[in-house]
Amino acid sequence: MCGIAGHLRTQPTHSKDIDARTAAAMLQAIWHRGPDSGGQWRSPDALCWLGFRRLAIIDLATGDQPMPNEDRTVWTVFNGEIYNFKGLREQLIAAGHRFRSGADTEVLLHGYEQWGIEGLLQRISGIYAFALYDVKARKLFLARDRVGVKPLYWWADGNELLFGSEIKAMLPHPALRDRKVDPAAVAQFLVCRYVSRPRTMLEGVQSLPEGCYLESGVGDAAPRIKRYWDVSYAKREPEPSFGEALEELDALLMKTVEDQLVSDVPVGAQLSGGVDSSVVVAMMELSRRRRGDKGPIKTYSVGFDVPGFSELHYARMIADRYGTEHEEIRVGFQEFMSQLPQLCWLHDEPVGQPPAVPNYLMCRRAKDDVTVMLCGEGADEIFAGYNKYAFEQAAPLLAWVPDGSRKRLLKNAGALLPFKARRLRAIAEILALPSEAERYASWYGALDAGAQSELLTDEMRGWAGTAFLDTFREVLDQYDGEEPLSGFLYCDLHTRLVDDLLLKADRMSMAASVEARVPFLDHAVIEFAAGLPQRYKLRGARTKILLKKLAERYAPRELIYRRKVGFTVPLTRWMTGPMARFLRDTLLSDRCFGRGYWKPEALRRLVEGHLDRKVDREQGLWAVLALELWHRLYMDDQANESAVDRMLESFEEPVLAAAGS
Fold first, then answer.
1. What percent of the chain is predicted at pLDDT more than 70?
2. Phi, psi of 143 (to 5 degrees)
3. CA distances from 141 to 135, 205, 413 (A)
């Protein structure tokens, strides 16, 4: 795992070569992604610059980048892992290619020469984001893995193109010093708690979509983006029996886990105590025994020092069962807040998921022992593990009720619920929405339609009501299946999973210089799950049916069939306690009111209503706070580590004093 950055002068007469100081600053911004070494390359004609920071995992001695082919006419910088590189390497050697290293990176160079960019992308399996420059053709390619596990951002104005593993890698360039906020992105964040690709929070800066590659040549007016992979939900013929599907899933997951254990550095696992990570850890241990590897697997779990907000005992249950070397990390309010400024900067966009903070602290501790961690991310999105999939089944049953009556009925029902019934109120408000796109965008969101109407200015309400929903409609237009559940899963795969959960997983692990691998998101596993009938995944209130049945082979039923809680942060307890003064000082400030997003009195009512425990708006308040902190780092300040230090200094007096009281 690494960090990459680069620059291409598409119109040489209207652009300048990147200077050494700017290049160094771009790489310094992503130093955490690759603390082991770094490198740069400029094309002989000064049209292309590639930069690299390395976290060494495969071929520690000879895997440095940027890496060229034999005659130095093709160069690449690569972030990720290619799990099938050994087989591809053998094919390429048989075709006459000569390799100088044992790194998976070199397969990209010779694979491009042999098969072209699309042929290469169809063959490689892994998690990756890379840039490849063809010196003779004066052409740059950017590519991202099938489901977007690894990020890649770009910006272009017709004269030059910038790219980076993180947005902050591009910001030192003069072209992005006068950056502007994209209001549609702000609107989506406030509704969904994330921003969907290709948008980012900054106008003109785009996220390369998952399963796509970009091509841009010298002299081209604009880059071209093409999709090379998507998952099909067409019905599988012949349909496997439940028993056949169970055996196939068991074998497929075991192979995927074993493929992802390949590394020249120590490998561990994130163990949450849920079904998904428990299955992964079990398969890791069984693989270790078959290989005869010495020493136990290292596993790590994180929880809070607040009663009722920790499932560490379930993680210990699996650790004891498989004899792992297990460690628990407990997080308190003061540690959470002291890390927040740093992680707001590392995240690039507002931190929509508060669990990002403890996730980082777990990875930071694990880094003392391991450099690679396997986790269970993605299983819920492909096997239907969330309760929202079950609740969504009620939406068609309400379709006969006129839209206006439906909204009034469910909104009024939600308003009658007590403070502690936030989830039930949210379900009622979402089911009141008439369109699939609106509902899919709103599940697990921040501000519902009523809060948007009350809180947002007219301009922001307009953006919230139209702009970003086009992304969800466009995704649903590409869905090729028939079952409603599969359409929801397909939408989640291309929105919330890639732009929220995988973004969090990448930023927080790479902030600690740890590579996170995701066996459930191997494209073969996704394609297998997509071809299964809905009844193997969801029936009534039963979720993730097939995967839970498989888990019975590896984990106790007590763990598998308990009520799904998820990893939640005790925000409401903190917000109404030690965080209260900080929330008031930050959100009810002239600085926050001046953003132009909020009606000041409505924001005051939102804050005070929650702090007085009248209406639970935990997620909405967190979204407003995360957006304000992002603004202070990325728009009011220089979006660098010095800005982080200044923010932390402003935290210390009100926050840490409250924590100690």
1. 91
2. -140, 150
3. 12, 17, 53
Task: Report which DSSP code applies to 655.
Answer: I
pLDDT in tens, 435-492: 788 788 878 778 877 788 889 998 888 887 665 678 888 999 999 998 889 999 999 9
Q: What is the DSSP string of 220-286?
A: -SS-EEEE------PPPSSPPPHHHHHHHHHHHHHHHHHHTT--SS-EEEE--SSHHHHHHHHHHHH
Task: Return the biggest CA–CA distance within the chain.
Answer: 73
Residue 326 sits at the vertex; the CA angle it makes with 325 and 332, to the nearest 5 degrees, is 155
Sheet holding 161-164, edge to edge: 37-42, 48-54, 2-8, 161-164, 153-156, 206-207
Q: Are strands 74-82 and 139-144 parallel, antiparallel or unpaired?
A: unpaired
Phi and psi at residue 68, in whole multiples of 5°? -105, 170
CA 445 to chain centre: 16
Q: Kindly report the backbone phi and psi dihedral angles of residue 76, in degrees, each rounded to the nearest multiple of 5, phi listed first.
A: -145, 150
Could you give the count of Cα atoms lying within 13 Å of 12 in the half-sphere of its Cβ?
Answer: 9
Print burial letters for 242-267: b (CB count within 10 Å at least 16), e (below 16).
Answer: eeebbeebeebbbbbbbbbbbeeeeb
Token pair in block for residue 176: 């992005």
> Domain 242-384+493-560 class?
alpha beta
Mean pLDDT across the stretch 600-619? Answer: 88
pLDDT in tens, 112-135: 999 999 999 999 999 999 999 999
Which tokens hold the place of 189?
Answer: 């964040």
Q: Per residue in 29-46, is it b (16+ CB within 10 Å) or e — as a string?
A: bbebbbeeebbbbbbeee
- Whether the bond into 172 is cis, omega within 30 of 0: no
- Quick: pLDDT tens for 625-652: 999 999 999 999 999 999 999 999 888 6
Q: Domain limits of the chain?
A: 2-227, 242-384+493-560
**What superfamily in CATH does domain 2-227 come from?**
Aminohydrolase, N-terminal nucleophile (Ntn) domain (3.60.20.10)
- Of 323-337, 416-430, 511-525, 627-641, the range with the lowest mean pLDDT is 416-430
Q: What are the residues whose beta carbons fall under 8 Å from the beta carbon of 402, sequence distance 6 or more? A: none
CA distances to 30, 188, 515 from 36, rounded to whole Å, are 12, 37, 13
Residue 413's identity, in one-letter code, is: A
Q: What's the mean per-residue pLDDT of the chain?
A: 90
List, edge to edge, every strand of the sheet that includes 224-227: 67-68, 74-82, 126-134, 139-144, 212-217, 224-227
Distance separating the N- and C-terminal Cα atoms of the chain: 42
Question: How far apart are the C-alpha atoms of 165 and 129, rounded to whole Å?
Answer: 8
User: What Rg do the C-alpha atoms of the chain give, in angstroms?
Assistant: 24
Q: Indicate the pTM of the whole model.
A: 0.93
